[in-house]
Design a protein that fits this description.
Helix content of chain B: 25-40%
Order of helices and strands of chain A: EEHEEEHHHH
CATH superfamily of the largest domain in chain A: Beta-grasp domain
Number of strands of chain A: 5
CATH architecture of the largest domain in chain A: Roll
CATH topology of the largest domain in chain A: Ubiquitin-like (UB roll)
Structural class of chain B: alpha+beta
Oligomer: heterotrimer
Helix content of chain A: 25-40%
Number of helices of chain B: 12
Number of domains of chain A: 2
Number of helices of chain A: 5
CATH class of the largest domain in chain A: Alpha Beta
Shape of chain A: globular
Strand content of chain A: 15-25%
Strand order of the largest sheet of chain B: 4-5-10-6-7
CATH topology of the largest domain in chain B: Uridine Diphospho-n-acetylenolpyruvylglucosamine Reductase, domain 3
Largest sheet of chain B: 5 strands, antiparallel
Order of helices and strands of chain B: EHEHEEEHHHHHHEEHEEEEEEEHHH
Radius of gyration of chain A: 15 Å
Distance between the termini of chain A: 48 Å
Strand content of chain B: 25-35%
Chains: A alpha+beta, B alpha+beta, C alpha+beta
Radius of gyration of chain B: 19 Å
Bound molecules: flavin-adenine dinucleotide, FE2/S2 (inorganic) cluster
Chain lengths: 161, 288, 783
């Protein structure tokens, strides 16, 4: 069985035939070549694959784990991946903050961290340290110990406020 | 990582969904997919077909009706957690939703999916039981309701028939004089509840007039701690009374689950601690 | 301009990562690519009776299915550290006779898509005869334990001992006090966030193989693959490790998959890709730690340490991984002196084989195990003698005046000022106030604890000739090359490998200062054997001290040549010209206004129009640096925790870390390394456990079970440093990557034990899960 899907990814509508079982993360990585969305686990824990997902009709994208959605479920949705976060060549304040605060080491968790933080700041523009730590519970980083990630989110929040 | 192959159907209406389920008895319902897909990726679950109900009209959202909130089965955990009306009128449910998994999971996972899946370590079932909620199912023969107390029927199994869909849950609202609290001990890796306690307490004239306490995570299905409820009912909500009542929560916990992280004994112990704390918080909120 | 060293420059590597342009192996896609998947054993120990691949082969989209019979031409996975007398059991890339751990390899599939490859695995039928299994390091050595390999009759692959046993025994006989502990340093799973992956492409026309792989040391992997495994000559084998998403030791060894992927690519004549799932990583990546230790400390009445004696059973898993035998020997027993003046030490160990996933280096590798033993013993001794944990440490520290200090276990510590580190740590943590607050909390019945961990690391393993004497198959040097281009831009090549450590920035800082060029004119290249012919890679906190020093050496050569050219053009003697490293200019002493810039001189080197006699055109230099000794970073961490007496749950409330890592190139990066290291060490103390059932099933099979630390587990960590330069490398740097991990584990365990001290709890084995802590409280209250 093949399914026709239309998915808007980083502002561009893409149309493909997919196998029902193709995971959204594989669609992004293998079909579209958007390899910024990483895969760090097979049990939906690590958050490396986090993207912003706006279901058909939704106003804004919410953080979801692209490894735990079928491409078929994204039919009609609008997705932002890490590749689409910068606008007109301008880094998103979260990207800048991760860079300035040394919020990454190996960089593998970073796309997912940044997009989860983007969702967090949409919900709660002035999060406390505890709220940031709690808000990142679906994302694992093995390198940084999280401290500079928390600082980056704080810095971006200040910047966006 | 890679599921087995399956066919995929996305019905446009409830009727079509029910027809598809009858036509494909081996199909599984796909709602948020946050229990089903992880199981399929590990090939623990290998359905031949999925019926994706994720976009069925009318199954997501919260409506107030006659002392209850009717919450559509497809309402996400995030929507419940953030809902002003749930937070104001049934805060216990919103608190529970906010403690499920992580933000990404809450953005996709649904109330109906969580209840239909009936994971022993899930959070909603415990709270639904404490709230004496009513579950609404639709099947080929029409709609029916099932009380929460009769819904969970064993490990990962419920009173739903294979060709039925859970379409909504009604939870009673509560206001001044009643307080609720849901507390869990999360597994350090999965975040699921190793033990969870949901308490709802009504205090009037300095006495506990109504109390419900449910414990999840410890046994295959959540259970009401009836002995604990009886012990507290009619008492002043003092520390001593709550401690004594919470200790009785253990009586309801037969054949506890056990794993590498937490033994059965420890889970029972955790349940009594969480029960004490949840009852204390609930009683304090009732009197606030 | 320059003077970049010592500044917290933003990282040069970050723009690609924050924009999703990291070049990880799993991102690679080649035309005609196929996908490899491995059939792995569900049993911990079983005889393979039959493998039926017919159904898998018949599945549409399957390109090939191979078993151990097909891969017999591939060599055995070697041991790279052969301690005297070691018995290295045969380890085939696909097993033929038996499987010896859950996840052991029995067959492989190559298919058109990874989905089809996974389907095909389910169609391979393996007939197993299950055998009894053993998982515990000490039990494996007992008579009657199930035997894994005929060639290792008692499951003991190697033993090692160091120190003077007689002196130790005399000291114990004369001691006022002896404290004894039996400790388990539990099995850990490294869990770099990027799972391992490999892609290979074979060119039949040039007979060249290219392998992209997630390695911390691509050059080493090339040597091992070429010499022992796949028979592609080294000059025809190109190994590329592009961006690697963390390693922590688990990406050091050469893995069977790294042999199978190129082997299969050649067999099927198409590129082959393999990416591990996380569950597959859990059963195939080398794991860490797993010691059982009996340790004793002899003391005088006043707390002076007289002697230390330990016996350790180190679990190697089912096979001997590449540097496995180094970890519990020369990286462990040699570190047992800690920061202390201990007159006599004796350590012995048994390296055993069990039906578990193999074990190799994991962040710290041996040194955390040593630090844990020493720091737990010292704390237990303090408790017994009624001393403050700070005082007993201060009393026994090696005084600053005693350096260089020869320990009784082979190492010679080069420098240190442990009292200074301690003073700073007391100040940073507000130790006195913490103790006062603890006294208050205890009055309220709260279980608040303060823990101290004082640790040393021997980092940047060295020198090569000692490595050879101890059983090492390779040396411990590093290469560093500087290619100055005609336009004055600089390409720097290192044999070290960055997988999060920030070398692209720190190495550029070093070279920019050495040459006096703008840091934006420098790029670092690493991780490609076609460009970097030789190198040893990154582990053991060696990259800056060894790799950075190699770059200093090649920069010195570049400067020397530049000065010759400048002297010639300025018509002066070389002795009379000055290389101004701040300005990047060369001039004749006393005449700075008539300087030649670095750019001009680089251009001159390539036009070669006007070079001095005997000077060749071009401006590029190579150097190999073989360090004279390890470096000895040291640290004192202090933490405050509170235990929930009802549930046993531990909360970390404060954490202060003072580290002496010698000279600091980039403070921001050093802090990041320390913070990340602390989180990993805390993970061991509180949450992580690569647990097995008695019959060898891996309980921590994926991230639903294995508890990697989350953001919410930590308070903000306060860091500070003292700076005692390493006397023997040109940068004065010491290792930093592993320090946080080494110190934080005992710090947290000591803090929890301090919290429980009023109850009389002496020790709990890690991880200190709520249930274990609660049970210890219950037991203490009963007795
Ligand atoms: C990383 C992670 C962490 C999590 N942590 C927690 C946690 O801490 N606590 C917790 O409670 N849960 C947790 N979950 C589970 C999560 O809450 C799921 O979303 C939920 O259990 C299932 O909801 P779903 O909509 O995703 O259902 P699905 O996965 O789509 O379906 C689950 C099952 O229910 C059936 N089903 C779904 N909807 C219906 C319906 N309307 N009628 C009949 N049958 C139906 C499906 O056929 C399937 O068998 C976690 C999940 C993940 C991935
Ligand atoms: S890949 Fe780990 S959560 Fe999606
Ligand atoms: S930066 Fe490496 S996992 Fe987060």
């Amino acid at each position: 069985m093949k399914l026709a899907v239309k998915i808007t990814v980083n502002g561009v509508e893409r149309a493909h035939e997919v196998e029902p079982r193709q995971l959204l993360v594989h669609y992004l990585r293998d079909t579209l070549g958007l390899t910024g969305t990483n895969v760090g686990c097979d049990t939906s824990q690590c958050g490396s694959c986090t993207i912003l997902f706006a279901a058909p009709g939704a106003e804004r994208g919410e953080a979801v784990k692209a490894c735990t959605l079928l491409a078929a479920q994204a039919d009609g949705a609008a997705i932002t991946t890490i590749e689409g976060l910068a606008q007109n060549g301008q880094l998103h304040p979260l990207q800048t903050a991760f860079w300035e605060q040394h919020g990454l080491q190996c960089g593998f968790c970073t796309p997912g961290m940044i997009l989860t933080a983007a969702d967090l700041l949409q919900r709660n523009p002035h999060p406390s340290e505890a709220e940031i730590r709690h808000g990142l519970e679906g994302n694992l980083c093995r390198c940084t110990g999280y401290q500079n990630i928390v600082k980056a989110v704080q810095a971006a929040a200040a910047q966006l406020a | 990582m890679y599921t087995t192959a399956f066919d995929y159907y996305r019905p446009q209406s409830l009727a079509e969904a029910l027809t598809l389920l009858r036509a494909h008895p081996d199909a599984k319902v796909l709602a948020g997919g946050h229990s089903l897909l992880p199981a399929m990726k590990l090939r623990v679950s290998q359905p031949v077909a999925l019926v994706d109900i994720g976009r069925l009209p009318g199954l997501a959202g919260i409506t107030a009706a006659g002392g209850a909130l009717k919450i559509g089965a497809l309402t996400t955990h995030a929507a419940v957690a953030a809902s002003d009306v749930v937070r104001a009128q049934c805060a216990l449910l919103a608190q529970t939703a906010a403690q499920i998994g992580d933000q990404q999971v809450r953005n996709r996972g649904t109330l109906g999916g969580s209840l239909a899946h009936a994971d022993p370590a899930a959070d909603y079932p415990t709270t639904i039981l404490a709230l004496d909620a009513t579950l609404h199912a639709a099947g080929p023969g029409g709609e029916r309701t099932v009380p929460a107390s009769a819904f969970f029927t064993g490990l990962l199994s419920t009173a739903l028939q294979a060709d039925e869909l859970l379409i909504a849950v009604s939870v009673p609202v509560y206001g001044r004089g009643t307080g609720g609290a849901y507390l869990k001990h999360p597994h350090p890796a999965s975040g699921y509840a190793v033990a969870g306690a949901a308490a709802r307490v009504t205090v009037a004239g300095g006495k506990v007039t109504q109390v419900s306490l449910a414990i999840g995570g410890v046994t295959v299905n959540p259970v009401r701690a009836a002995a604990a409820e009886r012990a507290l009912a009619g008492q002043a909500p003092s520390d001593a009374a709550i401690v004594a009542a919470a200790a009785k929560a253990a009586e309801a916990l037969r054949d506890p689950l056990s794993d590498n992280y937490a033994s059965g004994d420890y889970r029972i112990h955790l349940a009594t601690v969480l029960a004490k704390r949840a009852l204390t918080q609930a009683a304090a909120r009732a009197q606030a | 301009m320059p003077n970049y060293v010592g500044k917290s420059l933003k990282r040069k590597e970050d723009p690609r990562f924050i924009q999703g342009q990291g070049k990880y192996v799993a991102n690679l896609s080649l035309p005609g690519m196929t996908y490899l998947a491995l059939k792995r054993s569900p049993y911990a120990h079983a005889r393979i009776k039959n493998i039926n691949t017919a159904k898998a082969k018949a599945l549409p989209g399957v390109v090939a299915v191979f078993t151990g019979a097909d891969t017999a031409e591939v060599g055995m996975l070697p041991s790279g550290w052969n301690v005297p007398g070691i018995k290295v059991p045969a380890n085939r890339v696909l097993q033929t006779d038996k499987v010896r751990h859950v996840g052991d390899r029995v067959a492989l599939v190559v298919a058109e898509t990874p989905y089809i490859a996974a389907d095909a695995l389910d169609l391979i039928e393996v007939d197993y005869e299950p055998l009894p299994a053993v998982t515990d390091a000490r039990q494996a050595a007992q008579p009657g334990a199930p035997l894994l390999h005929d060639s290792v009759p008692d499951n003991v692959s190697y033993t090692w001992a160091l120190g003077n046993k007689d002196e130790v025994e005399q000291a114990f006989a004369a001691a006022d006090h002896v404290v004894e502990l039996e400790l388990t340093n539990q099995r850990l799973i490294a869990t770099a966030m990027e799972p391992r992956a490999a892609v290979a492409q074979w060119s039949p026309f040039t007979e060249e193989m290219t392998l992209w792989t997630t390695s911390q040391n691509p050059n080493l992997t090339r040597v091992v693959l070429s010499a022992f495994l796949i028979g592609v000559p080294e000059h025809k084998l190109r190994v590329i490790s592009p961006d690697v998403g963390g390693g922590f030791g688990s990406k050091i060894p050469t893995y069977p998959e790294e042999a199978l992927v190129p082997w299969a690519a050649r067999k099927v004549g198409r590129p082959v890709k393999w990416v591990a799932s996380r569950s597959e990583s859990a059963m195939s990546d080398t794991q860490g730690r797993d010691h059982v230790t009996v340790a004793k400390l002899a003391l005088k009445q006043d707390g002076t340490i007289l002697a230390l004696r330990i016996a350790t059973w180190a679990n190697n898993g089912a096979y001997i991984s590449l540097v496995a035998a180094l970890i519990p020997t020369a990286f462990y027993i040699t570190l047992l002196s800690g920061l202390y003046k201990i007159p006599a030490i004796y350590g012995e160990m048994w390296g055993t084989l069990t039906n578990t996933v193999w074990v190799d280096a994991y962040r710290g590798a041996g040194r955390p195990e040593a630090a844990y033993v020493v720091e737990r013993l010292v704390d237990v001794a303090a408790q017994k003698l009624g001393l403050d944990p700070v005082e007993i440490r201060r009393k026994n520290f090696i005084p600053a005046a005693d350096f260089p200090y020869q320990t009784p276990v082979a190492l010679q510590y080069d420098s240190g000022n442990y009292q200074g580190v301690l003073d700073k740590a007391l100040e940073l943590s507000g130790y006195a106030q913490l103790r006062a607050a603890q006294a208050e909390a205890r009055k309220q019945g709260r279980l608040v604890g303060i823990g101290v961990g004082a640790c040393i690391e021997a980092s940047g393993p060295a020198p090569s000739k000692v490595a050879g004497a101890l059983g090492g198959v390779t040396g411990f040097w590093e290469s560093g090359s500087i290619r100055v281009h005609a336009t004055g831009k600089v390409t720097v090549l290192t044999g070290a490998h960055t997988h999060g450590q920030g070398h692209e920035t720190t190495m550029a800082q070093i070279v920019a200062d050495q040459l006096g060029v703008d840091i934006n004119d420098i790029d670092l290249v690493h991780g490609d054997t076609a460009v970097i012919p030789n190198g040893m890679g990154t582990y053991g906190s060696r990259s800056t001290s060894v790799g950075g020093s190699a770059l200093v050496r090649s920069a010195e050569k570049v400067r020397a040549k530049v000065m010759k050219i400048a002297a010639h053009q300025l018509e002066a003697a070389v002795e009379d010209v000055v290389y101004d490293r701040e300005q990047g200019k060369v001039y004749v002493k006393g005449a700075p206004s008539k300087a030649k810039t670095f750019g001009e001189l680089a251009f001159a080197a390539y036009t070669a129009h006007n070079l001095p006699e005997g000077v060749e055109p071009g401006l590029e230099e190579d150097a190999y640096y073989d360090p004279a000794n390890f470096t000895y970073p040291n640290s004192i961490h202090i933490a405050q925790v509170e235990v929930d007496a009802d549930t046993g749950a531990v909360a970390i409330q404060r954490y202060a870390a003072v580290d002496d890592v010698g000279k600091v190139i980039n403070p921001m990066i050093v802090d990041g390394q320390i913070q990340g290291g602390i989180a990993q060490g805390v993970g061991q103390a509180l949450w992580e456990h690569g647990a097995y059932t008695a019959d060898g099933q891996l309980l921590a099979a994926n991230l639903m079970e294995y508890a990697v630390p989350h953001a919410a587990g930590f308070p903000m960590i306060a860091t500070a440093r003292t700076e005692t330069p390493s006397p023997h490398n040109p940068l004065g740097v010491k290792g930093v990557g592993e320090m946080g991990t080494i110190a934080s584990t005992p710090t947290i365990v000591n803090a929890v034990m301090d919290a429980l001290a009023p109850l009389g709890v002496k020790h709990i084995d890690m991880p200190l899960t709520p249930e274990k802590v609660w049970r210890a409280i219950q037991a203490a209250q009963r007795s």
